[in-house]
């Protein structure tokens, strides 16, 4: 009898939990779908002055002559000093931070991609593809796709304005969700980036959209007010940048 009562109680609790799914208004959903991360760039410009800050505190300014990558991530940078004109090569494990500029060619390509998807008009700002701002790279020790040995790489921070609790880094190998296009017309739907590298505390992981729900509690579970407002059964991967920003704002008060 006690077992039957327990089972009924658990079923009722499960039903109650399921019933707690939050329904958002169309206006709220539009806000949550807005992409707040900086655009990810893969090709630093060799024509503008880059800045490298080493772990020993020294700063080097010059032009990126060559960049070596592994699985898209930077692990070595060749710099021509802007004053001495001397060529120097730095490994990622020497560098703490790096600031570079995107190439014009990649910016143009990003604009073309933006214009080719109708969904972008309501969720992204074109200026994130075209502005001349510096790209911020940070040294992080990661396992590429959570499969390789840990190694230090220079990774592009794409949420610098709200990265004090959770840092999100561009995944150069990330794929996007598929959309629909007819006879060369702009694509409908799709275009949502499927993966990022994410750091919270001392943990850095590759986060794919398929693993979002499994890691939701790790990312946001220490803020009960946030979890009540945005329970994982009510949100989607499309809202990821909004959720990071909102969690940060609510946690910082």
Describe this protein's structure.
The chain has a domain at 24-39 and 140-174 and 191-252. The protein is built from 8 helices and 10 strands. The protein has helices spanning 2-19, 26-32, 104-115, 120-123, 127-130, 212-220, 224-229, 240-252, and strands at residues 50-54, 59-70, 73-81, 87-91, 95-100, 135-142, 151-156, 166-169, 195-200, 203-208. The strands form 2 sheets. The chain has a 7-stranded antiparallel sheet, with no helix packed on it. It has a 3-stranded antiparallel sheet with strand order 8-9-10, with helices on one face. The longest helix has 18 residues, at 2-19. It is globular. The model is unreliable at 6-10 and 12-19 (pLDDT under 50).
Brief digest:
The protein is of the alpha+beta class.
Task: Give the secondary structure arrangement, pairings included.
Elements: H1 2-19, H2 26-32, E1 50-54, E2 59-70, E3 73-81, E4 87-91, E5 95-100, H3 104-115, H4 120-123, H5 127-130, E6 135-142, E7 151-156, E8 166-169, E9 195-200, E10 203-208, H6 212-220, H7 224-229, H8 240-252
Antiparallel strand pairs: 1-2, 1-5, 2-3, 3-4, 5-6, 6-7, 8-9, 9-10
Task: Spell the H/E element sequence.
Answer: HHEEEEEHHHEEEEEHHH
* pLDDT < 50 runs, ≥5 residues: 6-10, 12-19
Largest sheet: 7 strands, antiparallel
Mean pLDDT: 87
Query: Quick one: how many beta strands?
Result: 10
SS strand fraction: 25-35%
**Count of alpha and pi helical runs:** 8
What structural category arises from helix and sheet content? Answer: alpha+beta
Tell me the Rg in angstroms: 21 Å
Oligomer state of the chains in this structure: single chain
- The helical percent reads 25-40%
**Which strands sit side by side, in order, in the main sheet?**
4-3-2-1-5-6-7
* General form: globular
First and last CA, distance: 48 Å
